[in-house]
Write a structure and sequence with these properties.
8-stranded antiparallel β-barrel; mainly beta; elongated; about 260 residues; single chain; 5-stranded antiparallel β-sheet
Length: about 260
């Protein structure tokens, strides 16, 4: 592993990769985080430590890591057409990566190898000002990939998310009632009907036999919600997406348990 900023060679002190699920399409989003340092006494102290990261992540174009080896993700400016950032480099301050390429060199069951090249702003002097070139190559452990469970509330209101965790929808009938209310308004030509959706889905999380409470708050949308869980709940539950087709008996909650 290495990190090079302009003509300075650094040692990679730490690096990590994590993944999250994108609500609207259930694809994975990747986040990369790299810390590097040099002990070269001839380098100004302000340039001795750097941090390169993807704060908001970027979509990898799939629901799994299969066939990811060899893929390249390229930004020709600070953001791409989806508004995803090329990244951020911290030396003196958090500044933009103005362009870059992230290449997946290899991946197996345990590790992933990534090369990241690009240009970034630093604003230190003429040599380390705007669009300073960098290059790094890292290998790091693959974290557990989030998995989502689909719960159709019209078939069941209780489901096992993993070997330790169950989720129960406590008041699905109220959610369905609010859905029907908005549907009637829509059928009566109220084109803002679904923006008036307002309901709270109460949840019970059972983790290793212990019960915790939570809520999925739907405000102005029947498909996206904000999650609130007991502070002492040891697992993170997210409803990333809700889809509705009651004509065919489907009211699906896409649930991620971390």
């Amino acid at each position: 592993m290495y990190f090079r900023l302009n003509n300075i060679e650094y040692q990679v002190e730490s690096c990590s990769v994590r993944f999250d699920i994108i609500p609207h399409n259930q694809n994975l989003k990747m986040y990369i985080d790299i810390d590097a340092k040099t002990d070269n006494d001839s380098i100004d102290s302000e340039l001795c430590e750097i941090h390169l990261y993807h704060n908001n992540g970027f979509e990898i174009g799939g629901k799994s890591l299969r066939n990811l080896t060899g893929k390249k993700f390229e930004w020709t400016k600070a953001t791409n057409r989806m508004g995803e950032e090329a990244g951020t480099l911290y030396v003196l301050e958090h500044e933009e990566v103005t362009s870059g390429v992230i290449e997946i060199l290899g991946i197996n069951k345990e590790t992933i190898c990534i090369k990241w090249t690009g240009l970034a702003n630093i604003y230190w002097n003429d040599e380390f000002g705007e669009n300073v070139p960098f290059e790094t190559e890292i290998e790091t452990k693959i974290p557990e990939i989030p998995k989502f469970k689909v719960i159709n509330g019209m078939e069941t209101t209780k489901a096992k998310l993993d070997k330790n965790t169950e989720l129960e929808l406590l008041n699905f009938d109220e959610i369905l009632k609010e859905c029907n209310r908005c549907r009637v308004m829509w059928q009566n030509n109220d084109r803002d009907a679904w923006e008036k959706y307002d309901a709270i889905l109460n949840l019970k999380i059972i983790y290793k036999g212990v019960e915790y409470n939570g809520q999925a708050i739907y405000k102005g949308s029947a498909t996206q919600c904000n999650m609130v869980l007991d502070d002492n709940c040891p697992v993170k539950i997210k409803i990333t997406k809700t889809t509705i087709d009651t004509t065919f008996g489907k009211y699906n909650f896409y649930v991620v348990c971390e």
